[in-house]
Amino acid sequence: MSQTDHDIQDEKARERLIELAEKFYDQFEGGDVPSMEIPTRTKTNIVFDEESGVWVLGDRTSTRSANSVRGAKKLLKSIYTTEFLERQLEENRSSTLRELYYLSESWDNEHAQFDNQDESNQLIEDLELVSGVTREDFHMRPEESGAKVMGPLHIREQTNRGDRDIHCQDDVGQGGYQIPNNPDTIEFLDCDAEFILCVETGGMRDRLVENGFDDDYDCLVVHLGGQPARATRRLTKRLHDELGLPVAVFTDGDPWSYRIYGSVAYGSIKSAHLSEYLATPEAQFVGIRPQDITEYDLPSDPLADSDTNALESELEDPRFQTDFWEEQIQHQLDIGKKSEQQALAARGLDFVTDEYLPTRLDEMGIL
């Protein structure tokens, strides 16, 4: 995306913020009590769309009105935040979600100041919903996720210090290329990768890179860093959609890790309003699978009560209502065990790259 394209994107974001402010002015001029209609983000209004295969928001909305003290304060905070974001875009600056919380301390109306960061985070999400603009396009950043990419990909990244051409193997150390907050600032110049492997843990990511898995199999190794950040999911989706790369997700063998896979493939409840922007329904799960625990006799830990409850909950989750997942989850409940990626090291440090992943990826039709 060229500099001009980003300028246009920024201007569109500013226009949407100005339109929100104009609605309040129109309400005042018409003698109406100021209000703002927002899609409801409760679990009851989040549905699994069978056609697209992702979580999406339903049709329910709620009205935030100034006809109560509480509602008036929330609208006041929305107006101050809208003004701040518009000015930030005009000045081509950016800030973090954490900084926004502290910045509000300097606002001239104490009722506009946030009580805690959760409140400011939620307000940014509200503004995403009512404006149709993502926080990335508002130039709002989370704290660093630390997610990295390693593999045969040549990119051009637009930064405040100019464009940078980077090869994600040749121009980086073993740490890899760090994913920026807004992956839409990346232009794909050339790619020799055959597929993407999203890896949950840093330890396993380092093992794959040290063993040269990215080089040997023309693979992009994407470190998820636990529950993946929006930027990580967005880049993964772009690589899949624009370059046609298959996506495989490699996690620990426990219910919480299956949900990490689910967030990559189907989206999360928290970001259901952005599923079409973030989720990659075609992503496949590599492992660790419950059947691996018994097949490879992996070192394991007993399931805690919370693990069991989570697995039983996943049996009711539409994301996991397939023959594969029902069989795997039921097997895990039967054996009462969970295992980590690094448990594969019990069969040797090279087992994961020489045998486990090549065999599994070949079975899945990726290799």
Automatic annotation (TrEMBL):
Pfam families: TOP6A-Spo11_Toprim (PF21180), Topo_VI_alpha (PF20768), TP6A_N (PF04406). InterPro entries: Spo11/TopoVI_A (IPR002815), Spo11/TopoVI_A_N (IPR013049), Spo11/TopoVI_A_sf (IPR036078), Topo_VI_alpha (IPR049333), TopoVI_A (IPR004085), TOPRIM_Topo6A/Spo11 (IPR034136), WH-like_DNA-bd_sf (IPR036388). GO terms for molecular function: ATP binding; DNA binding; DNA topoisomerase type II (double strand cut, ATP-hydrolyzing) activity; magnesium ion binding. Mg(2+) binds at residues 200, 252. CDD domains: TOPRIM_TopoIIB_SPO. Residues 195-361 form the Topoisomerase 6 subunit A/Spo11 TOPRIM domain. Residues 73-139 form the Spo11/DNA topoisomerase VI subunit A N-terminal domain. It is an enzyme of class 5 (isomerase). Transmembrane segments: none annotated. Gene3D superfamilies: 3.40.1360.10, Winged helix-like DNA-binding domain superfamily/Winged helix DNA-binding domain. Its EC number is 5.6.2.2. GO terms for cellular component: chromosome. One of its GO terms (biological process) is DNA replication. The keyword Magnesium applies. Homodimer. Heterotetramer of two Top6A and two Top6B chains. This is Type 2 DNA topoisomerase 6 subunit A. The lineage of its organism: Archaea, Methanobacteriati, Methanobacteriota, Stenosarchaea group, Halobacteria. The gene is top6A.
